[in-house]
Amino acid sequence: MYVIAGLGNPGKKYAHTRHNIGFITIDQLAEKHNIKVDKLKFKALVGEGRIADQKVLLVKPQTYMNLSGESLREVMHFYKLPPEQLIVIYDDIDLEAGALRIRKFGSAGTHNGMRSVVYQIQSDRFPRIRIGIGKSEKKDLVDFVIGGFTKEEVPALEEAVTKAACAVECILEDGIDRAMNQYNTKKKSLKDEKKDEKREDAE
User: Fold this and answer.
1) What is the pLDDT of residue 190?
2) Does residue 64 carry a pLDDT above 60?
């Protein structure tokens, strides 16, 4: 069994914010695989089902971001699972909007939700999928992450959520190495995109 957790904040106020991209990815997985994430248990909304022929528990902690680990500690303890069978999906301001990074393990970095998870389960040896949301030079960091997506950001972030959901399926079916090779793509800069356009025109 695998626990697939998306990090975010509960409530309608935060539903479509950058900080909730983990929740949004869980919602997409749930819809795609016909899993109802509607049971309140372990301080989270959870739903059991199957993805890629693996039994999974989809989890959306309802503790608010900074205490996400409390919920995941309860889940992992209840099912007596090793950290390797936890996959965490969350936003990352250090990646440009729409970029995806999958790692087998590693530190929590500056993300408070991940810091809570690592602290509570006493391990950083679990796979994680980071979805880039970029940074804003104009807005305060907190206002930025709990703010909604701009019109320009929506296509890239929708694509990133779809890829993150596919990456989860790939991890479950083919292993994390295959998922890293396939989905650790960097979003191209505008400069690179223009270079590609020129190359295509030349051809």
Assistant:
1) 44
2) yes
- Phi and psi torsions of 71, nearest 5°: -65, -45
Sequence-ordered strand ranges (E) for the chain: 2-6, 39-41, 44-51, 54-61, 86-92, 100-103, 128-132
Give catalytic residue positions: 19
At a CB cut-off of 8 Å and minimum separation 6, what does 59 contact? Answer: 3, 4, 5, 6, 26, 37, 42, 44, 45, 46, 71, 72, 75
Phi, psi at residue 59, to the nearest 5°?
A: -135, 130
Q: Three-state DSSP class for 127? A: coil
Q: How far apart are CA 135 and CA 123, in angstroms?
A: 28
Residue with the bigger pLDDT between 78 and 187: it is 78
Q: What domains does the chain contain, in order, with CATH numbers?
A: 2-202 (3.40.50.1470)
Contacts of 116 (CB under 8 A, 6+ apart): 65, 66, 67, 68, 69, 70
Lowest mean pLDDT across 88-97, 116-125, 151-160: 151-160
